[in-house]
Amino acid sequence: MTIRVLIVDDQVMVREGFSVLLNAMDGIEVVGEAVDGREAIEQVAALRPDVVLMDIRMPRMNGLEATREIVAADTDAKVLVLTTFDLDEYVYQALRAGASGFLLKDASARQLADGVRVVAAGEALLAPSVTKRLIVEFSKISEARKLADPAGAGELTERETEVLVLIAQGLSNAEIADRLVVAESTIKTHVSRILVKLGLRDRTQAAVYAYETRLVTPA
């Protein structure tokens, strides 16, 4: 199946550049572009993309607000945030709002295509070298809001808690299975149960939850 992508950015050169790169990749098609969050919401409804590449800082409606609305609308579209990392203090909030991960704007063509494929497949884009750092940094900022006794945490089994910690460390299902010496299908079952028990949307929110509730702490 071809992965349908919507690119949202207020800079025309960014939109055109990403369009050229992605349309050159097998199995990926850019079906539309939007210049701000409001237009992104309209385009998601009209075009039904699989993945939305979402910039954060845009006029009229920013990417954070648009991500919240797209996720709240319960569409099949997955939001992949585009960021410069050092400048976008709202990325952490976007992850909490339901974005499936993020990419740096200077990502290579291969990284961009791989990121789109990962998110389209229902996985979270959690590169240990970058995403973990971002989640840790912004979990410090929101520490005052974290729960002393996280709701739902007591419902997890010891193994599920172990899996949640490894998710927050950026490990894939295959890597977690290798670490715990079990079948990958077993890990998928654990992940599904964790998300249901904690009322979370995906692995990204699970990772944010683990940091906010101090199941994982900065090294």
From TrEMBL:
<keyword id="KW-0597">Phosphoprotein</keyword>
<dbReference type="InterPro" id="IPR016032">
    <property type="entry name" value="Sig_transdc_resp-reg_C-effctor"/>
</dbReference>
<keyword id="KW-0238">DNA-binding</keyword>
<dbReference type="InterPro" id="IPR058245">
    <property type="entry name" value="NreC/VraR/RcsB-like_REC"/>
</dbReference>
<protein>
    <submittedName>
        <fullName>DNA-binding response regulator</fullName>
    </submittedName>
</protein>
<dbReference type="Pfam" id="PF00196">
    <property type="entry name" value="GerE"/>
</dbReference>
<keyword id="KW-0805">Transcription regulation</keyword>
<dbReference type="Pfam" id="PF00072">
    <property type="entry name" value="Response_reg"/>
</dbReference>
<dbReference type="GO" id="GO:0003677">
    <property type="term" value="F:DNA binding"/>
</dbReference>
<dbReference type="InterPro" id="IPR039420">
    <property type="entry name" value="WalR-like"/>
</dbReference>
<feature type="modified residue" description="4-aspartylphosphate">
    <location>
        <position position="55"/>
    </location>
</feature>
<dbReference type="InterPro" id="IPR001789">
    <property type="entry name" value="Sig_transdc_resp-reg_receiver"/>
</dbReference>
<dbReference type="InterPro" id="IPR000792">
    <property type="entry name" value="Tscrpt_reg_LuxR_C"/>
</dbReference>
<keyword id="KW-0804">Transcription</keyword>
<dbReference type="InterPro" id="IPR011006">
    <property type="entry name" value="CheY-like_superfamily"/>
</dbReference>
<feature type="domain" description="HTH luxR-type">
    <location>
        <begin position="149"/>
        <end position="214"/>
    </location>
</feature>
<feature type="domain" description="Response regulatory">
    <location>
        <begin position="4"/>
        <end position="120"/>
    </location>
</feature>
